[in-house]
């Protein structure tokens, strides 16, 4: 008996250990997967199929941990190569280099619920037109019920709302994004410059601009994330790529508590003939997780219910109008799709006028475009305005996608999208006066990340301990604000980036030739994000992560073209090190000799030398050359989200004033921080009356 029980236990353990995909139901014909012509209702063809590419959906109860082994075993048995694993939006995977016969046989497996051809998809087309002088017309149209008054009034700014641009790549370093744009995922990483890949980024950039650019965007202070799922040059991709990109969005939102969240996906895919597709399953999963989803009706001049994902009832679907400059002529644009699934229409342009937005492959330039590619992100920006009121709702309970959609539909002006004060009331006071928002914003503005709960609670508690005393609150707000710049985390990330720039290049020449401090805001935040990736001071192993990030970044730094132009590989080791010290304006003979010797004998490389000089005592000790200029520059980068010579200054007078004040000892950093956080420019990032059209 004991022997029998032992044998049963061993057998059970073997069955549990075996890959579940190899276990067939009792009575199942094990030769089914070998029959090339077996009939199946689980294999689905689609329009515009991508040759040899399929999306495989597994049973919902498939353990997440077993999707990888299951995908590997199934492709070994039936052919093809695993492309993506889907573990969160649904259980499954995508495969390439598989024949239709192989895919049909695969669909017969009992653990497979469907095999669907991956479809070619495209972004909604746009057309370039000459730029308009009156660039706020689209915004001016949706902030009021009728007429144009030449002003864009907005009741909120989208502060604390995360908007994901699922499209071609967003040119995140454009000045219009003010350091609020980040690269989340790219389906096709390529040669990069400064951490972002090169290429034609127009479509993603224009949609991000319409959502949240500081001049031409609806929600001027939202956070933007580039999720590249389409080829930049052609605007084409596959549903496999789109599903993987959306899975990255879901993971980012749920893992990092980035709520409220909105997805803008200006894309159309022909609907399938077999019901809810894998892409639509993915979209509905995001919506069920509290992520508001916005898309365009499309430029096919057809019933929008023929296209996915906009045909889904819970997706906010925005069509295009041409009623500018005369709103009395509001009408569907001739190219825009239409029908009952369209929730609202927004300006999209026509042959006589275009929507101006941030240009691609440039830091300061602009483009003019038209199409529902523009109208959809106007809807996404409107959703961000609505969701701002719930940005401190930890469970996102009051900011559900259905609620946002209902507000957009119920408050529209006729069929026209409307985001004025009747849509969402402005806050009673400036949100930045709320302690929790004030501290959260410092995590975004200086540490370039989501707040960790313990740190967030600590600083909020410090300020709230004043029990309403205005003078006490102001002092603690200033001290708390200073602490972010002075923190170990910022010193190791942001200040490290500053020092690398300072020892490598003395100044920066703008596109127009203007000489300004180095670095520039647009690149600074991208670089800081890399060095700070995974770093939260106080968490286990944070110092090792930071050290490795600094090393990796320094190696990348010395391989950038700008650095190589200044320090060509043909330079001798002595000349290389000497030029770094000369540019830095410091002297450290002993370390200098050690660096040269290390390069000569191979114990050092260019990256490690640059890192060590940037972190050296000689640099750290020179407050007037490094610490003070960095402190002043970060006032502009962090609080004002611009370069010191950007508008409204247009020159370095403000920067030079504060630098001279600190270097001379006339004023302290406390005085400077107080001036910046009390300034109208800072406070108007979050609250800029008048809010409503008169």
Produce the secondary structure layout.
Elements: H1 2-17, E1 43-44, E2 49-58, H2 67-78, E3 81-86, E4 92-96, H3 100-107, E5 112-123, E6 127-128, H4 137-142, E7 162-167, E8 181-186, E9 192-193, E10 196-197, H5 202-212, E11 223-228, E12 236-238, H6 239-256, E13 261-265, E14 267-270, H7 278-288, E15 291-296, E16 307-308, E17 316-321, E18 344-347, E19 355-358, E20 366-370, H8 372-388, H9 401-411, H10 435-447, H11 453-464, H12 470-486, H13 488-492, H14 494-504, E21 508-509, E22 515-516, H15 521-531, H16 542-557, H17 561-566, H18 573-584, H19 589-601, H20 606-614, H21 617-620, H22 623-640, H23 653-664, H24 669-678, H25 680-683
Parallel strand pairs: 1-5, 7-11, 7-13, 8-11, 13-15, 15-17, 17-18
Antiparallel strand pairs: 2-4, 2-5, 3-4, 5-12, 5-14, 6-20, 9-10, 14-16, 19-20, 21-22
Helix pairs in contact: 5-8, 6-7, 8-9, 10-11, 10-12, 11-12, 12-24, 14-15, 14-20, 16-20, 18-19, 22-23, 22-24
Provide a descriptive summary of the structure in words:
Helix 11 packs antiparallel against helix 12 (about 470-485), helix 12 packs across helix 24 and helix 14 packs across helix 20 (about 605-615). The radius of gyration is 28 Å and the shape is globular. Residues about 1-40, about 125-135 and about 190-200 have low confidence and may be disordered. The strands form 5 sheets. Strands 1, 2, 3, 4, 5, 12, 14 and 16 form an 8-stranded mixed β-sheet that branches. Strands 8-11-7-13-15-17-18 form a 7-stranded parallel β-sheet, sandwiched between helices. It contains 25 helices and 22 strands. It folds into 4 domains: about 40-120, Peptidase S8 propeptide/proteinase inhibitor I9 (Alpha-Beta Plaits); about 125-410, Peptidase S8/S53 domain (Rossmann fold); about 430-485, no CATH class; about 490-620, no CATH class. Strand 21 (about 510) and strand 22 form a beta hairpin. It is of the alpha/beta class and about 700 residues long.
